[in-house]
Amino acid sequence: MTNPIVQPFFDEPTNTFSYVVRDPDSQACAILDSVLDFDYAAGRTAVDSANDIVTYVRGHDLEVEWILETHVHADHLSAAPHLKQQLGGKTGIGAHIQDVQEIFGKAFNAGTDFARDGSQFDQLFQEGDRFRIGGLEARVLHTPGHTPACLTYVIGDAAFVGDTLFMPDYGTARCDFPGGDARNLYRSIQKVLALPPETRLFLCHDYKASGRDDYTAMTTVAEQRRANVHVHDGVSEEEFVTLRIERDATLDMPKLILPAVQVNMRAGQFPPAEDNGQVYLKVPINRF
Q1: I need a labelling partner for 11 at 20 to 30 A (CA). Which of 19, 73, 155, 217 fits?
Q2: Gyration radius of the chain's alpha carbons
Q3: Is 52 helix (H, G, I), strand (E, B) or coil?
Q4: Residue 156: left if φ>0, alpha if ψ -120 to 50, beta else—which one?
Q5: Closest listed residue to residue 21, CA positions, set 156, 121, 142
Q6: SS3 157
């Protein structure tokens, strides 16, 4: 089995890890979970974080085959359109994006012009789908719970788990967004933890639990099974569901959830400009 070369990129304002995943035997690569810089107070975007990836890809003469999302992120905006314009590649996300688009299309009153069939993306992945990054074979696990569309991409000895799991000292994803479900998350995590113990798990976020000095991108299945504070070996489904629901009730909404979801459900594109030529994002009052 060929294993990928993985280069992480950390965006500290959103605590997000993005990745370039490389085939060691060719120039082929994929980009996962990119970040578009967004100053919410000013309503301004920038591409500094995404351009770090562009510089890396061009500096190593890589060929981008895929620009992948593990889910519709609620804590950062995707830079997929910018990366596709600069580097090429096909965009991909889970087929259950349609569920997310239906939920949030209604919440933001996106109108009939907003397609709810996932057609904004080049590829919609189902459980068990396989695809290639050069000579690397990748397969897809549908791992809902945080959102209905969450995926884990298993590429050689590496798995990219999105928000499903955090570092063992921080635990697991919240499940209180529309379409989330703690019981589904527990079952999804069991699928991930059934991978070989040495499997490298690459995380979408790290919030650096108290007492730890460094942000960390990677853990392993073995470490999660031994030490995850929410879902280590021996924690039952009922125990986890109770813990997760109680913890979620104490959490504030992510500060970028309203702009992020409106953009990310459109594959990183902003809503269409209005009749004055200006693009706007909505704030539903007392909806969430």
Answers
A1: 155
A2: 18
A3: helix
A4: left
A5: 156
A6: coil
Measured CA to CA, the distance from residue 121 to residue 267 in angstroms comes to: 6
Nearest-angstrom CA–CA distance, 170 and 84: 33
Rounded to an integer, what distance in angstroms lies between the CA atom of residue 90 and that of residue 109? 28
CA-nearest of 280, 259, 284, 30 to 135 is: 30
CA distance 26 to 267: 28
Residue 161 φ then ψ, to 5°: -100, 0
Task: Report residue 85 as tokens.
Answer: 């314009």
Q: Give the whole-angstrom CA distance, residue 43 versus residue 222.
A: 43
Residue 10: beta bridge partners?
17
Q: Is residue 232 within 8 Å of 225, Cβ to Cβ? A: yes
Q: Between helices 80-87 and 48-59, what is the axis angle to 10°?
A: 30
Helix (H) or strand (E) holding 163: none
Residues 91 and 47: beta-carbon distance below 8 Å: no
Distance from C-alpha of 76 to C-alpha of 38, rounded to nearest angstrom: 8
Domain 5-264 fold: Metallo-beta-lactamase; Chain A (3.60.15)
Write the CA distances from 56 to 108, 161, 172, 208, integer angstroms: 36, 23, 30, 26
| pLDDT tens, the chain, 288 aa long | 789 999 999 999 999 999 999 999 999 999 999 999 999 999 999 999 999 999 999 999 999 999 999 999 999 999 999 999 999 999 999 999 999 999 999 999 998 889 999 999 999 999 999 999 999 999 999 999 999 999 999 999 999 999 999 999 999 999 999 999 999 999 999 999 999 999 999 999 999 888 888 999 999 999 999 999 999 999 999 999 999 999 999 999 999 999 999 999 999 999 999 999 999 999 999 988
